[in-house]
Design a protein that fits this description.
Layout (H helix, E strand, L loop, with lengths): L16 E2 L10 E8 L3 E9 L4 E10 L2 E8 L3 E2 L11 E9 L2 E9 L2
Antiparallel strand pairs: 1-2, 2-5, 3-4, 3-7, 5-6, 7-8
């Protein structure tokens, strides 16, 4: 008698997550980690304290998995962004993936 089926694929995330950047505070680069449990359009953006968009780090369809993006206050990231010499202060990064939305705070200290 079968009572249930368990997914044994440990490499596939069980849910959405956006982790705290590391290091935080940072100067001039930091890493942002997130995971998505299913394929979909993912956007990851950086905003200043006033809500102005500073950079778009990710804006593409991604398959389920865990990801890491490096953000540089001197030049955006390898994935895009048009950042030029940000000043010290508080910034926010926001992920949108399907119906999931999360925002985290990061601090740039120069």
């Amino acid at each position: 008698m079968i009572t249930g089926i368990e997914d044994t694929d440990a490499s596939s995330p069980k849910g959405f997550s956006l982790l705290q950047n590391y290091p935080n505070p940072f100067n001039p680069t930091t890493k942002i980690n997130y995971s998505i449990p299913q394929t979909g359009i993912v956007t990851l953006k950086v905003f200043d304290i006033l809500g102005n968009e500073i950079a778009t780090l990710i804006n593409e369809e991604q398959s389920a998995g865990e990801y890491e993006v490096e953000f540089s206050a001197d030049g955006g990231s390898a994935y895009g962004g048009n950042v030029s010499n940000l000043s010290s202060g508080i910034y926010f990064y926001k992920i949108t993936a399907g119906n999931y939305k999360a925002t985290m705070k990061m601090i740039l200290l120069k």
